[in-house]
Known about the structure:
This protein is mainly alpha-helical. The protein has helices at residues 2-9, 13-37, 93-96, 113-121, 139-148, 171-177, 189-193, 214-227, 241-249, 254-276, 308-311, 355-363, 377-381, 397-426, 433-459, 465-493, 499-530, 541-556, 560-564, 566-588, 592-616, 638-662, 672-693, 704-729, 739-762, 766-785, 801-817, 841-869, 878-909, 916-945, 953-957; strands at residues 82-88, 126-132, 182-187, 200-204, 234-239, 287-292, 312-319, 335-338, 344-351. A 9-stranded mixed beta sheet has the order 4-3-5-1-6-7-2-9-8, with helices on both faces.
Amino acid sequence: xxxxxxxxxxxxxxxxxxxxxxxxxxxxxxxxxxxxxxxxxxxxxxxxxxxxxxxxxxxxxxxxxxxxxxxxxxxxxxxxxxxxxxxxxxxxxxxxxxxxxxxxxxxxxxxxxxxxxxxxxxxxxxxxxxxxxxxxxxxxxxxxxxxxxxxxxxxxxxxxxxxxxxxxxxxxxxxxxxxxxxxxxxxxxxxxxxxxxxxxxxxxxxxxxxxxxxxxxxxxxxxxxxxxxxxxxxxxxxxxxxxxxxxxxxxxxxxxxxxxxxxxxxxxxxxxxxxxxxxxxxxxxxxxxxxxxxxxxxxxxxxxxxxxxxxxxxxxxxxxxxxxxxxxxxxxxxxxxxxxxxxxxxxxxxxxxxxxxxxxxxxxxxxxxxxxxxxxxxxxxxxxxxxxxxxxxxxxxxxxxxxxxxxxxxxxxxxxxxxxxxxxxxxxxxxxxxxxxxxxxxxxxxxxxxxxxxxxxxxxxxxxxxxxxxxxxxxxxxxxxxxxxxxxxxxxxxxxxxxxxxxxxxxxxxxxxxxxxxxxxxxxxxxxxxxxxxxxxxxxxxxxxxxxxxxxxxxxxxxxxxxxxxxxxxxxxxxxxxxxxxxxxxxxxxxxxxxxxxxxxxxxxxxxxxxxxxxxxxxxxxxxxxxxxxxxxxxxxxxxxxxxxxxxxxxxxxxxxxxxxxxxxxxxxxxxxxxxxxxxxxxxxxxxxxxxxxxxxxxxxxxxxxxxxxxxxxxxxxxxxxxxxxxxxxxxxxxxxxxxxxxxxxxxxxxxxxxxxxxxxxxxxxxxxxxxxxxxxxxxxxxxxxxxxxxxxxxxxxxxxxxxxxxxxxxxxxxxxxxxxxxxxxxxxxxxxxxxxxxxxxxxxxxxxxxxxxxxxxxxxxxxxxxxxxxxxxxxxxxxxxxxxxxxxxxxxxxxxxxxxxxxxxxxxxxxxxxxxxxxxxxxxxxxxxxxxxxxxxxxxxxxxxxxxxxxxxxxxx
Length: 958
């Protein structure tokens, strides 16, 4: 009992300091591991300059021209004077290509008719490309990759909320350094990446995914007047409507179709303006139009990973000056199909990696220093009409184009080799010796061809096509071999994983596990000292079985298949624990109803998880205006439609009635009683909100603007007021309640406070999930209480890890039951705007976090004390109860830490896996956020729950 007094003498900090130390260790471990795992490649502070070309084996653009007056100050002979780039964010390839290119026609196909018609009517002047992006496929990384010509990495996802300026050499920087004037309008990510590069810019906020029109309308407002102005060389217009429509409504939705039709009209007007101004001496005589997507999207509107739907986008390019008649078939990648109107449409393919260097070559500016792409021959050929007047009389237009293309590839290859040499010398983790040798060999072979045969033929004007063409084709193939070798090696080995930092972070995580395990064992030792009963021993069959379940779940994280099926795995383990509990109930002949009920609940959770997985399978039936899966099941039945509206409201009223009954309990006194009454009021407001928002009832209890906007804000305000009231209640010693009753009262008040916001954000599925979590928690408390020794109620107080493990598994099931999964399309962005139309980062991030983790982390963490308080029929004393609660929070955090540690091991082992950015990295991000949120809430809950209440007089005297 001496130890008991010493702990109690330190106050509540004697129980909770370990949780704060654990939080610090986890923050440090995650910080170090993340810097090692999500580390970008080394960015070199070097830039290309016009004078650099004199160090290359290639000849200048003036040497390739018959007239020195046409010489360019850049690296290549400029092919176009002006460039119009229209970025349609998240344009899928099948938005642009005719439906005949696909096995099945979908509603969203054949909407951008103007691009298909231009490609079929002017096949030598307009081309459609299937453009392949490199993952990660978020807008920030793709814009960075498109302008630098390099391979971005996953870590920049975190910068999507506030993109830093690009410090590497890039296409936009080269434009500005070489006297080109750039005008930008649309997505404000451009001004964040290039804050001082634009002659004029019209940025619009891009992160409000509910807003489909503000950015697009801003682009339209400025685009058409700017096309008639002369004070620019490059115009960039970035539309966002399709991306936002995908996130909120999905690809197969009416807003998506409307957006595509709007874009078709806009592009038709743009092409008309450029064609009307393309005559000799006109403003757009030598303008190139490029319409492109930065990435694709899944049917759910997701992007970020590396699936075909996400990486396949489109590029349409159209020249308004006659290009050469053809590109040699060896360098053409087109495939042709007849569209629905019987017109022949040809589509080529290219890598987005090649965009920056190809545009630089067309404009005649130096290539970005770190670009590893190659000049695309078909896109480069669209600008070759500029050179027709310079062509030798002995060569055709196409032959003369090949001269220029071969020289441009020489410069391209020299620039890439220069960059790789500098990178290998500067980066701590570059290419291996074998890779360097392979690259050097391919470049040496190409350079040998160039210096010993090709360059002499190019400089000799007397050579005819029959002599020059075979040599040029061999030279171009040699450069292709070198550049494709570089791109292949870069994609396979580019990301630099700092294994030292990753190992250090993993080591600190292991230290935190040892620290938590020591705290658990020490608390158990205290139980043994304060209990003369042999049942104080912690090593029981239940403990062994809990560790067995923990081991199975942890090991499942090492497999990509089990990560995809994480919800089913957690539900299977939860059901297994329920069967074990049922066996114990049958043996002891008690708690049988609770055991059977818990198994039925687990079966219901499995069904709901399956429904949630059908959303993940990208079925458009779940991507409607509803935030709930309930309204989408058997939606064809009118009776079900009304039931799906009414049942959630009835369940919410039932929950409100249950809370009202709680207020009559002896432990529900001021201020906790008023907190719970506030929640009942919030529930009624939510019902009014749903009735007003529904189209089926036709009842307007309040004006629609108030129902949709102000009622959610009132619910948030009530929750905030409840929090302040509970904080105020902490300032007073409520010694009129014993310790156990005080714990129950505070837990009930805290859960009711959070529940209103969580239910509101979850939509009409919220009451159902809340009711399931309430029933599941009740069953777990009753089953845990079933182990109570009727003869020695005070001495049998060690809970052990088995019920905590069940609590953790049930919380995981609730995450998947509420329609979430560990991927970025598992986030319900619409929930962040309930009650608000305008975007504010911190507010929307908080609401999105509450919606995502409300049922799976916030409510389970604050509800854990009920598992302790309901264990005992009598007051066992403040120190015993608080020691046990501290131990249980430590066990809960230990389980979460084990899961995080195995996730770290998984991404370390699978860091070169094909699915690393599509599956393992998102799982890592979700688990990191879940771990830190769990730790923070445990620390806050400890401060809230510990330190008040009184012991029974009998216990005090003893």
